Amino acid sequence: MSADNDATNNANKPLRRILIIAYGADSHADTLVASRLLERLRERSIADSWWLTLIEDAALRLEHALDLRPNDLAIFIDTSKHGKAPFEFNEILTRGAEPILPEADAVLPSDLLHALATIGRQGTLPPSFRLTMPLSSEASGEDIAPTSDTSITAAVDFLENLLGDTSNAHWRSETNS
């Protein structure tokens, strides 16, 4: 689907800028899962849309608040050893009022929302969501476990479907909670 088709298919819906940040916070396996997920998402035609920004990083950084600033919706993709398969999708319920309290030098999505609220943004903070991929204990080295690979495939299909309807109500209806 090209950007022109995006505009035609969404003629009755306002186009919204969306940011997806995939990061690996704790280990090489985390980073590998995030990288593989974005790599597969980039293979989909939706990734060529002008309104979608994909960022991959080894960890969240406060500078990502500037990436978040012009967007209407955001998804933070990370991994968890306690995550449920194939993935979890939840809204980050913060108004940016929480102080930044880094844990072991880790920046959390709520820290970015706080930074964005602090540096100023006209209007409200963008609704933000977290897609958490389970990290299999089998994942190590340069390869990921088959269970992680299955979760990545399911998450990419989910994200492509989610991006087909960018209304807040639709995204909230797709959360696990």
TrEMBL record:
SUPFAM superfamilies: HybD-like. It comes from the Bacteria. This is Homospermidine synthase. It comes from Congregibacter variabilis.
